[in-house]
Structure formats: structure tokens, C-alpha cells
Amino acid sequence: MRLLVAGALAASLAGVPAPQARCTIDDPRLGELSGLVVDGDAVWAMSDGGRRVQLHRLDPSTCAVIDSRTAGVDPYDPEDLARGPDGSLWVADTGDNQLRRESVAVIVLPRRGAAEVHRLTYPDGPHDAEALLVDAAGRPVVITKEVGRPAGVYRTATPPAGEDPTPLVQVGELTLPQSATVGGPVGGVGSRLVTGAAENADGSVVAVRSYTDAWLYPVPDGDVVEALTGTPVQVPLPDEPQGEAVAFEPDGTLLSGSETRVVPGELRAVPGATALVADRLPADTAPPPAPAAAEEPTPAWQPAVIGGGVAVGLLLLVAAALAVRRR
CA-based angle 16:198:143, to the nearest 5? Predict the structure, then answer.
């Protein structure tokens, strides 16, 4: 097993813009926003929970729902959205707060045709997971959500096919760097819990988010797993109530959103996010520099490095809070 452990410190925060409110999400179907994905000029959003798969296309300037896609599948706990190399949309039905599922699933909605359900099994027992990536070969990469220990990174050996469960293989572990960004439902512990992931349009940058930050990794030679061994760039996403959704627009803008349980919520944007890691990408994959943005006042939050120790009592409290969910 390859261990993937991010550096204890992220790259410098100099020049990282603060997130800007793009628009207000007031559709009650998105009160538990947990997944975002961008496909060309289409922004798709998803709530977790529910008795069937429902994806909603947002107007990127107003956040109004302008289209929907559904699948006749009753998911257990869908948590994230990803885009496959062929343009299909992947729903990560990987939530398992009670750690009792024998298998999890990805539900693939192709551009045309019926949805496909592919069951996945962990090699080491149940895990709760809220982050999904799909590599260039069409293999799902699942990053688990762990309290007080590194997240597990799992991938199938081949693209999943058919109805029989496909084994996941653990390819490493990921520890997010320390952060003092304020936000989330569980205080400082939430800054190191993995709650979502995304790739940019050309696959050269990956974002792994927590309740409080997005961490951007350059992707060498299209290898998503290898990317997670690098030192990430921190993009603070402060003051989101329960931030779980993240995506990239084609121009490199990072989008983020949060569960609110009751609407309205916000879709926020960090322009030029992929340019923050451009100097660490190979010359033939580096995105063009983002246009200069208007100077903004220093945000109230002040990111800083804090100690990594967490009291046992706090961990137990957090685990209990995270477990109070649905089925």
C-alpha cells in the first residue's frame, strides 16, 4: 500500500483571493447541498439524502434551477458528484455514518441512456466517505471521512462494470494540513475532515475540501492518486455552515457550497483558483494566468497554523454529532 500524506504545512497563502458570493440558492430541493460538478457551461448540484437520484442544473449567475435529471434508483446516502472522462455524471452513494454498509455504490448517469449502478466494496470494512474523483481511466477514487486519523484513499483496479460488486483497493492515506479557518458544524476538527473533491476541466488540478478550506493539488501526468502525495495550496472557505460541495469552472474558478438544511444558501466563487498551482504544473499543462481581480479588503478571518492535537473527549463528541443523520 502506498501512503499518501500531505505536508504538514500548505503552500503560502499570499495572493489567494477570498471567496465571493455568486448567487443565492433558494430552491428547497438543494437545502442539503453536498455535491457540485461543472460540465462545460452546465453547473449541476445535488442534495444528499432522498429516495431517488436527483441532479439539478443551476443558472450559474442566478442559482435558479433550470433543468433536472433523475434516475429510478433509491440511494442510501449520496454525498458527492463527479464527472467521468466521457462526460457522464457520477453520484457517490458512499455515505455511511453508522459504518454498517456491506457495500457502497457509484451511480453513473451517461449523457444518453439509462443510469447504471455499480457496487463497490472496501477491503477493510465499512467507511463513511463524502469525496469522489474519477480518474482518466474511468476508475472511481473514493476518499473517506475519518475522525482523528488519516483519510483512506481507495480506487478500483479497473473501471467498474455490471452489477457484481467491484473491489476497492486502498492506495494510500491522506492527512490534510492544519488550518485555523473558521466555519463548519464541529469547530476546528472539521478543518481536517474530507467532505468533497473535484477536478478541473483538463484534469491538471484536484481540489480536496474540508468544512473550512479547499486544498489544491497539481496533477502530474494525469495521475490523481499521485497528485495527493504533493503539498497543496490552501484556499480558505470561511463561514460555511456545513461546506461539502466543490467544483471548478472551465476558466479555473473554484465554486463552493454548503448544506444549510433550510434555504437560502450561497454559491461562492474563488476566481483564478487553478492559477494558484500553475507554477507547479508541467509547462504543457499549466492553465493560463487568471485575469487580475480588483483589490479587496483583507478578510476578517486570519488563516494560521495551529496545533494538531485534539482531545479525546472532543473527538467522541464530533463522532456522535456526525452520526446523527439519516437512515
Answer: 115
Q: Quick check: 92 and 81 in contact, CB under 8 A? A: yes
Report the C-alpha gap between 78 and 73 in whole angstroms: 11
- Quick count: other Cβ atoms within 10 Å of Cβ 302? 12
SS3 308: coil
Q: What is the grid cell recorded at 195?
A: 467532505
Burial string for 159-192 (b: 16+ CB within 10 Å, else e) reads bbeeeeebebebbbbbbbbbbbbbbbbbebbbbb
Q: What is the mean pLDDT of residues 150-164?
A: 95
**Of residues 179, 298, 285, 308, the one with CA closest to residue 235:** 179
**CA dist., res. 24 & res. 7, Å (int):** 35
- What pLDDT shows up at residue 282? 55
Give yes or no for residue 147 having a pLDDT over 70.
Answer: yes
Domains and CATH numbers, the chain: 20-290+299-323 (2.120.10)
Q: Rounded CA gap, 218 and 300, in Å?
A: 28
